[in-house]
Amino acid sequence: MLHIEGSIASLRLKQPFSIAGYRFEQQEVLRVTARDGACHATGEATGVYYLGDTAQSMQRDLAAIDSACWRGIDRLTLQRMLPAGGLRNALDCALWQLEANRRQLPLHVLAKLPRTHALLTTMTVGVASPEDMALAASCYVGARAIKLKLDGSALDGERIRTVRRRCPQVRLLVDANQGWDMAHLESLLPAMLDCRVELIEQPLPVGADDDLRGYRCPIPVAADESFQQLSDLEEMTDKYQLVNIKLDKCGGLTEALQIAREAPRHGLGVMVGSMVGTSIAMAPAFVAGQGAWIVDLDAPLFLIGDAQPAAQYGNGEIDFPVLWKQRWPEATSGSA
């Protein structure tokens, strides 16, 4: 019989990380271990902080589930049993890995995908002074894509220009995390066009992004906070050009793969990102990102320590060369 247990791990960041309206100094995650006889697998979820989905709330919800519910559980049953969010993500990813371990099959084979390959990933720079952001961007040795967090202040334009001067060749993206209004967006367009910005992520607050409906922005705009799960796709079609799939938002790899297939049918490109997390969380996102236009899976680089075996970073890419044989450590409390 399948046995499920969960515990909270505290991840320490190398330094505080700021975005519009929020500052990260450490991150607690829920790790769920699924055991079936000699096989076990671990899934990790951060939750969605701006929706109140936290490690603590996920652990409480997990504890409230009757153990009898795990008898005969599979990924499809799980989709009906729990709503999208962090808890379902941790459970879903654990079930994927458990089946891969049990059947000794690569994860991408179970997902009916071609063999995985290294992915170009953005390297993220948190909100700071223009000079500090340029320095941080230049410290990413080998980076080929940089994403700048911006906060809606008067410094945003200079942040973009200063980073571009320091890093003239990289792909440049910006992420407002709901921190702009339309006036700020339009005021930044000259700087963004001059500096060859390729993507604007979530410029307007959720609920205010109807202003983007029909707006012809010369730079593609991606939905992050406005887009949570598969059922949101239709609403995105005339406001955004891409959707950012995060497993913590949509509830795991199962729905992430569905979104990746369905988004192009709605005329939307695919971006795959993550919350703060270790390589346990990056591995299934890496699978989901195999066909994505943009991948933003650099979260382990912000941590003091990572789960082993860890994602490999080099030449601006993320790779999991032994993804098919992962044996993640059992869920324990404490740091990564």
UniProtKB/TrEMBL annotation:
<dbReference type="InterPro" id="IPR036849">
    <property type="entry name" value="Enolase-like_C_sf"/>
</dbReference>
<dbReference type="GO" id="GO:0016855">
    <property type="term" value="F:racemase and epimerase activity, acting on amino acids and derivatives"/>
</dbReference>
<dbReference type="InterPro" id="IPR029017">
    <property type="entry name" value="Enolase-like_N"/>
</dbReference>
<feature type="active site" description="Proton acceptor; specific for (S)-substrate epimerization">
    <location>
        <position position="246"/>
    </location>
</feature>
<feature type="binding site">
    <location>
        <position position="175"/>
    </location>
    <ligand>
        <name>Mg(2+)</name>
    </ligand>
</feature>
<protein>
    <recommendedName>
        <fullName>Dipeptide epimerase</fullName>
        <ecNumber>5.1.1.-</ecNumber>
    </recommendedName>
</protein>
<dbReference type="InterPro" id="IPR034603">
    <property type="entry name" value="Dipeptide_epimerase"/>
</dbReference>
<feature type="binding site">
    <location>
        <position position="201"/>
    </location>
    <ligand>
        <name>Mg(2+)</name>
    </ligand>
</feature>
<keyword id="KW-0460">Magnesium</keyword>
<dbReference type="Pfam" id="PF13378">
    <property type="entry name" value="MR_MLE_C"/>
</dbReference>
<dbReference type="GO" id="GO:0009063">
    <property type="term" value="P:amino acid catabolic process"/>
</dbReference>
<comment type="similarity">
    <text>Belongs to the mandelate racemase/muconate lactonizing enzyme family.</text>
</comment>
<dbReference type="InterPro" id="IPR013342">
    <property type="entry name" value="Mandelate_racemase_C"/>
</dbReference>
<dbReference type="InterPro" id="IPR018110">
    <property type="entry name" value="Mandel_Rmase/mucon_lact_enz_CS"/>
</dbReference>
<dbReference type="InterPro" id="IPR029065">
    <property type="entry name" value="Enolase_C-like"/>
</dbReference>
<keyword id="KW-0479">Metal-binding</keyword>
<feature type="active site" description="Proton acceptor; specific for (R)-substrate epimerization">
    <location>
        <position position="149"/>
    </location>
</feature>
<feature type="binding site">
    <location>
        <position position="224"/>
    </location>
    <ligand>
        <name>Mg(2+)</name>
    </ligand>
</feature>
<dbReference type="GO" id="GO:0046872">
    <property type="term" value="F:metal ion binding"/>
</dbReference>
<keyword id="KW-0413">Isomerase</keyword>
<feature type="domain" description="Mandelate racemase/muconate lactonizing enzyme C-terminal">
    <location>
        <begin position="130"/>
        <end position="222"/>
    </location>
</feature>
